[in-house]
Amino acid sequence: MKIGEIVEILIVIKDQQHTRSIEEEALIEACNLLDRLPSGEEATTYEPIKNRVV
Questions:
Q1: What is the pLDDT of residues 4-16, one digit of tens each?
Q2: Cα three-residue angle 52-53-54, rounded to 5 degrees
Protein backbone atom coordinates (compact mmCIF):
# COMPACT_ATOMS: atom_id res chain seq x y z
CA MET A 1 0.00 0.00 0.00
CA LYS A 2 1.32 3.42 -0.88
CA ILE A 3 1.88 6.03 1.85
CA GLY A 4 -0.55 8.43 0.14
CA GLU A 5 -3.26 5.76 0.23
CA ILE A 6 -2.75 5.27 3.96
CA VAL A 7 -3.12 9.00 4.56
CA GLU A 8 -6.35 9.07 2.54
CA ILE A 9 -7.78 6.14 4.53
CA LEU A 10 -6.88 7.74 7.86
CA ILE A 11 -8.58 10.98 6.81
CA VAL A 12 -11.74 9.07 5.87
CA ILE A 13 -11.69 7.24 9.22
CA LYS A 14 -11.29 10.55 11.05
CA ASP A 15 -14.17 12.11 9.13
CA GLN A 16 -16.55 9.13 9.48
CA GLN A 17 -15.92 8.03 13.04
CA HIS A 18 -17.07 9.71 16.18
CA THR A 19 -13.63 9.66 17.72
CA ARG A 20 -12.59 10.93 21.09
CA SER A 21 -10.34 13.95 21.03
CA ILE A 22 -7.21 11.89 21.83
CA GLU A 23 -7.96 9.49 18.97
CA GLU A 24 -8.66 12.34 16.57
CA GLU A 25 -5.43 14.04 17.60
CA ALA A 26 -3.50 10.81 17.00
CA LEU A 27 -5.07 10.42 13.54
CA ILE A 28 -4.19 14.00 12.64
CA GLU A 29 -0.61 13.59 13.85
CA ALA A 30 -0.23 10.31 11.94
CA CYS A 31 -1.47 11.98 8.75
CA ASN A 32 0.90 14.90 9.29
CA LEU A 33 3.87 12.55 9.73
CA LEU A 34 2.94 10.43 6.72
CA ASP A 35 2.42 13.55 4.61
CA ARG A 36 6.12 14.35 5.02
CA LEU A 37 7.05 11.10 3.28
CA PRO A 38 6.92 10.52 -0.48
CA SER A 39 3.26 9.65 -1.12
CA GLY A 40 4.05 7.35 -4.03
CA GLU A 41 6.45 5.19 -2.02
CA GLU A 42 5.35 1.77 -0.81
CA ALA A 43 4.85 1.87 2.96
CA THR A 44 6.54 -1.50 3.48
CA THR A 45 9.70 -0.60 1.59
CA TYR A 46 10.25 3.05 2.47
CA GLU A 47 13.52 3.92 4.18
CA PRO A 48 14.56 7.46 5.07
CA ILE A 49 17.02 8.96 2.58
CA LYS A 50 19.85 9.09 5.13
CA ASN A 51 19.70 5.28 5.50
CA ARG A 52 19.53 4.47 1.80
CA VAL A 53 22.54 3.15 -0.01
CA VAL A 54 22.74 4.84 -3.41
A1: 888 888 888 888 7
A2: 110
Dist. CA 28–CA 14, nearest whole Å: 8
Q: 3-class SS at 7?
A: helix
pTM: 0.60
Rg (CA), the chain: 13
Return the pLDDT at 34. 84
Q: Are 34 and 3 in contact (CB under 8 A)?
A: yes
- Angle, CA 49 vertex, CA 35 and CA 2 arms, to 5°: 40
Contact criterion met (CB below 8 Å) for 34 and 1: no
